[in-house]
């Protein structure tokens, strides 16, 4: 059904050099979206799915629908009077040099750098401290429009060869290109059709990678569920690559990965059917015709080998340790009954790494980093003194190195790289970005609020100092709440612009995440998924009760599983927020597992085929199925990419179609579909800036701002 909102949206266009306004009326006419009588029976319940035809990403009809929706959406967004101003300010603050931590491979020191507004980071290198720096790889030259990105880079043991993966238009499907690292020339044909894969070298002769058979039908949406680990020997065609694991029915898993130990002795293989829990195997590569040895034969835990010292293995696991611990075992008898605690579990979640002959145990304490350094006997050497309260990462390097580089950031501190002397335990600034943002003008504090069932949930709230708590501050509430993912404090250039406008940025650490270990994760999955939505709703209510904002000035935002969060929250409590911003979201909970590798998300969600109880639970919150006629939903801007093969865009297409059909009242219901873009990784800088300008413009305009909030009266008058 077509709905026409004519004359409802009056976009204020400021006349130059005076304070008068010219009202430009916009007629928002949603494209016609046909309904098809499609019905599926689940345990005797018939569920209508009138927009299932939009799942066909290869059809001309779907392509026409995308074009029509984008035309309406961009006409609206481009009419917002300060959209261009936001884009210019984003470009201005984004335009600073960004440098990654250096790393040594062979005779060269490599690092990533972006001059400011380059679409993709460039890989540079130099041979010795006094040598000139040269470009090693420039992904900005991979394609004319910047949409082909570098998706992985790995060097052979002596640094003489390199293999790098590229992603085209944001797809999860990759190509691997192999070059001579000395002269940067290709040495053989490109490997095709690689997906969800690392690149792990064995010596200098070849490497391990993972992929699926190319699916029948659409490569962007067809189901993929049998992952294989391959070995590619240099100088041989890909057709001769040997399958190491995953080729039989017994070894069939959705996600398989292989990594070679630093000393080249062992190959460790993980095999999973879901994003949580997996089996673990190993092969001793020092032996002729090495056999597959089982370390762990069930999928009840998250377990992996972090290091070895000869035949002594160091294993990170949450088996009988929800917050994770490190155990040791001899490779000759690696099964769990032989494990011995090395760094025992604590009350905080452990994320360890190794480098320079030591272990670095990073702990999350209420989502904030603490780092401890241990020797190979498990003795505490020191607690690493960090620059402040925030997120530290990157405490890893090769065993022989004397220094490592780590990053530190929080919501008001741009990511800074520090050089750490491993023996002395001292840090010095290696690179501090020169960005037009003054952290001293902002403050960030952590609060704990109470969710519906009495659970205490932490949230970090960031804004300008001196903010008046008057209930009228534009507020962005961002959440995720799933897949054991932790939202720790980090700086965002885009969020800096939001706060510069007087906005509040609030991030709660919802159940379903990993901030408090496996128990916190499991408290937000399957039949407990509603806890996540309740936590998010309670966060919004806290911000309103404490007068940070009010429903008229609150926006909720999240991507992927966070897009589901936004979709479920806005359908359950449409009165709570003014703006909803679901990005690349999982919106159809009855069919998500039928696309690409979606079945692997069942640990968190369950599926509609598991049981009648699980079906009814999913149906109760599935965003596509809970939009109701006669309801005024918040102003909504759905965002997705036409090449998203992680969460296929059909989720967003169907949700937008339903919302446009059901929406009552004046709030717009738009979908912004980025072309030649995927789930998010590798998106060009230009595309990112344009998207944020649209999101912030849409949000502020629908909160009632005719001019940007930080404009003074004199600036408005010109």
Automatic annotation (TrEMBL):
<dbReference type="GO" id="GO:0042597">
    <property type="term" value="C:periplasmic space"/>
</dbReference>
<dbReference type="GO" id="GO:0004252">
    <property type="term" value="F:serine-type endopeptidase activity"/>
</dbReference>
<dbReference type="GO" id="GO:0006508">
    <property type="term" value="P:proteolysis"/>
</dbReference>
<dbReference type="Pfam" id="PF02897">
    <property type="entry name" value="Peptidase_S9_N"/>
</dbReference>
<dbReference type="InterPro" id="IPR001375">
    <property type="entry name" value="Peptidase_S9_cat"/>
</dbReference>
<keyword id="KW-0720">Serine protease</keyword>
<dbReference type="InterPro" id="IPR051167">
    <property type="entry name" value="Prolyl_oligopep/macrocyclase"/>
</dbReference>
<comment type="similarity">
    <text>Belongs to the peptidase S9A family.</text>
</comment>
<dbReference type="GO" id="GO:0070012">
    <property type="term" value="F:oligopeptidase activity"/>
</dbReference>
<dbReference type="Pfam" id="PF00326">
    <property type="entry name" value="Peptidase_S9"/>
</dbReference>
<keyword id="KW-0378">Hydrolase</keyword>
<dbReference type="InterPro" id="IPR002471">
    <property type="entry name" value="Pept_S9_AS"/>
</dbReference>
<dbReference type="GO" id="GO:0005829">
    <property type="term" value="C:cytosol"/>
</dbReference>
<protein>
    <recommendedName>
        <fullName>prolyl oligopeptidase</fullName>
        <ecNumber>3.4.21.26</ecNumber>
    </recommendedName>
</protein>
<keyword id="KW-0645">Protease</keyword>
<comment type="function">
    <text>Cleaves peptide bonds on the C-terminal side of prolyl residues within peptides that are up to approximately 30 amino acids long. Has an absolute requirement for an X-Pro bond in the trans configuration immediately preceding the Pro-Y scissible bond.</text>
</comment>
<dbReference type="InterPro" id="IPR029058">
    <property type="entry name" value="AB_hydrolase_fold"/>
</dbReference>
<feature type="domain" description="Peptidase S9A N-terminal">
    <location>
        <begin position="31"/>
        <end position="432"/>
    </location>
</feature>
<feature type="domain" description="Peptidase S9 prolyl oligopeptidase catalytic">
    <location>
        <begin position="489"/>
        <end position="703"/>
    </location>
</feature>
<dbReference type="InterPro" id="IPR002470">
    <property type="entry name" value="Peptidase_S9A"/>
</dbReference>
<dbReference type="InterPro" id="IPR023302">
    <property type="entry name" value="Pept_S9A_N"/>
</dbReference>
<keyword id="KW-0574">Periplasm</keyword>
<keyword id="KW-0732">Signal</keyword>
């Amino acid at each position: 059904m077509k709905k026409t909102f004519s004359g409802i949206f009056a976009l204020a266009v400021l006349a130059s050099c005076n304070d008068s306004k010219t009202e430009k009326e916009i007629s928002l006419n949603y494209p016609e979206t046909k309904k098809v009588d499609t019905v599926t029976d689940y345990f005797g319940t018939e569920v209508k799915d009138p927009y299932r035809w939009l799942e066909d990403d290869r059809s001309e009809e779907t392509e026409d629908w995308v074009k029509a929706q984008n035309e309406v959406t961009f006409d609206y967004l481009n009419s917002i009077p300060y959209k261009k101003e936001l884009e210019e300010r984003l470009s201005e603050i984004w335009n600073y040099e960004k440098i990654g931590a250096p790393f040594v491979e062979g005779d060269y020191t490599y690092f990533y750098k972006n001059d400011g507004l380059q679409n993709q980071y460039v890989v540079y290198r130099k041979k010795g401290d006094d040598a000139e720096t040269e470009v090693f790889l420039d992904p900005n030259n991979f394609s004319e429009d910047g949409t082909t990105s570098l998706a992985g880079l790995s060097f052979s043991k002596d640094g003489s060869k390199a293999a790098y993966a590229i992603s085209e238009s944001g797809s999860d499907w990759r190509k691997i290109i192999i070059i001579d690292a000395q002269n940067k020339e290709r040495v053989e044909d490109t490997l095709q059709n690689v997906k969800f894969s690392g690149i792990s070298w064995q010596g200098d002769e070849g490497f391990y990678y993972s992929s699926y058979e190319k699916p029948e039908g659409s490569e962007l949406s067809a189901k993929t569920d049998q992952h294989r680990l391959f070995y590619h020997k240099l100088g041989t065609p890909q057709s001769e690559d040997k399958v190491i694991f995953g080729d039989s029915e017994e070894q069939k898993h959705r996600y398989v990965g292989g990594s070679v130990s630093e000393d080249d002795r062992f190959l460790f293989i993980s095999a999973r059917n879901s994003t949580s829990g997996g089996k673990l195997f190993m092969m001793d590569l020092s032996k002729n015709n090495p056999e597959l040895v089982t370390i762990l034969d069930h999928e009840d835990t998250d377990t992996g080998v972090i290091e070895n010292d000869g035949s002594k293995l160091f294993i990170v696991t949450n088996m009988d340790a929800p917050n994770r611990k490190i155990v040791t075992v001899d490779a000759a008898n690696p099964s769990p009954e032989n494990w011995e605690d090395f760094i025992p579990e604590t009350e905080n979640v452990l994320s360890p790494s190794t480098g320079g002959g030591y272990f670095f145990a990073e702990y999350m304490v209420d989502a904030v980093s603490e780092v401890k350094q241990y020797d190979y006997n498990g003795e505490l050497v020191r607690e690493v003194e960090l620059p402040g309260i925030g997120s530290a990462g990157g405490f890893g390097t090769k065993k022989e190195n004397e220094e490592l580089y780590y990053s530190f950031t929080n919501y008001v501190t741009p990511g800074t790289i520090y050089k750490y002397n491993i023996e002395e335990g001292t840090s010095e600034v290696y690179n501090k970005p020169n960005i037009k943002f003054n952290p001293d003008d902002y403050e960030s504090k952590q609060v704990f609020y109470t969710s519906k069932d009495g659970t205490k949930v932490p949230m970090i709230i960031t804004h300008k100092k001196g903010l008046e708590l008057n209930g009228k501050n534009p507020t962005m509430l961002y959440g995720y709440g799933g897949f054991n993912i932790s939202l720790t404090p980090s700086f965002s250039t885009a969020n800096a612009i939001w706060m510069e406008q007087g906005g509040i940025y609030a991030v709660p650490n919802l159940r379903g995440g990993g901030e408090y270990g496996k128990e916190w994760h499991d408290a937000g999955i399957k039949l407990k998924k509603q806890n996540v939505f309740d936590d998010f709703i309670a966060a919004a209510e806290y911000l309103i009760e404490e007068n940070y904002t009010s429903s008229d000035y609150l926006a909720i935002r999240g991507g992927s599983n966070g897009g589901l969060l936004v979709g479920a929250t806005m359908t359950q409590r449409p009165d709570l927020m003014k703006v909803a911003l679901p990005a690349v979201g999982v919106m159809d909970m009855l069919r998500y597992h039928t696309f690409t590798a979606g079945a692997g998300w069942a640990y968190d969600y369950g599926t509609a085929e598991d049981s009648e109880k699980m079906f009814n639970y999913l149906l109760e919150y599935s965003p596509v199925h809970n939009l109701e006629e006669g309801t005024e939903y918040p102003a909504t801007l759905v965002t997705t990419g036409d090449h998203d093969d992680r969460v296929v865009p059909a989720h967003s297409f169907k949700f937008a179609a339903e919302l446009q059909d059901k929406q009552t009242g004046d709030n717009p219901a738009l979908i912004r579909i980025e072309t030649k873009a995927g789930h998010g990784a590798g998106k060009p800088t230009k595309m990112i800036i344009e998207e944020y300008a649209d999101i912030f413009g849409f949000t502020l305009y629908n909160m009632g701002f005719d001019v940007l909030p930080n404009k003074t009266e004199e600036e408005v008058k010109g």
